[in-house]
Amino acid sequence: MSRLVLSGISKNFGAIQALSSVSLSVAPGEVLGLMGDNGAGKSTLVKIIAGNFPPSAGEIRIDDKPVTFHRPRDAQEEGIEVVYQDLALCDNLSAASNVFLGREAMRRVGLVRYLNYRQMNETAADLFRQLKSETHPRDLVRKMSGGQRQAVAIARTLLSKPKIVMMDEPTAAISVRQVKEVLDLILRLRDQGISVILISHRMPDVFGVADRIAVLRRGELVASKPASGSSPEEVTGLITGAIDAA
């Protein structure tokens, strides 16, 4: 059974057709590499899955159940989390505080409620252990490497026990060593049975972790196939239009 199924997803912005009848599925514990040039429709598709806006046509199913998202919270309640390129972290806070940002654990003493730092630190430490990350709960984000920052952002998604995690350009503008850290984090998610949609322009990274690759061109899905049955050269041809479809 597929974890996520998109059937005939289209999106219009006035006279602009951003997506045209895109049908795609992702299995539990599968990494899908979503590729395409700027303006191909990747961001629009991700925002539809994340509940930022509804499709003009088509259906979304989660675990074979039709779902309709009116806002991002609806998608989160169905187990969909997004790690955006800017990560949305607060540099002046600790790793644990960032993991719990907006969902802080509280404790009550009499009539007064306090932040439960002990619980947040312990839970964050457990999430980092699951990810096999060297990040520590009390580390300040502003002192972290790009790979550690990604670990914090991913740990934040794990707090809600997600079914699907979408990652937008997670290896952009970081060092080779940090890229390996992030790719390892993606594999850890996969090993936990979480479906991962990896949006990236970096061909080696996608082929390094993806089980399947989907390519969008001008709002249309031109390929969805096992990564083992494709190649960077073929994907480049699909993205540019040198290859019509695969």
From TrEMBL:
Keywords: ATP-binding, Hydrolase, Nucleotide-binding. It holds the Pfam family ABC_tran. It comes from the Bacteria. It is an enzyme of class 3 (hydrolase). SUPFAM superfamilies: P-loop containing nucleoside triphosphate hydrolases. Residues 4-243 form the ABC transporter domain. GO terms for molecular function: ATP binding; ATP hydrolysis activity. Its EC number is 3.6.3.17. Transmembrane segments: none annotated. Belongs to the ABC transporter superfamily. This is Galactose/methyl galactoside import ATP-binding protein MglA. It comes from Martelella mediterranea DSM 17316. The lineage of its organism: Bacteria, Pseudomonadati, Pseudomonadota, Alphaproteobacteria, Hyphomicrobiales.
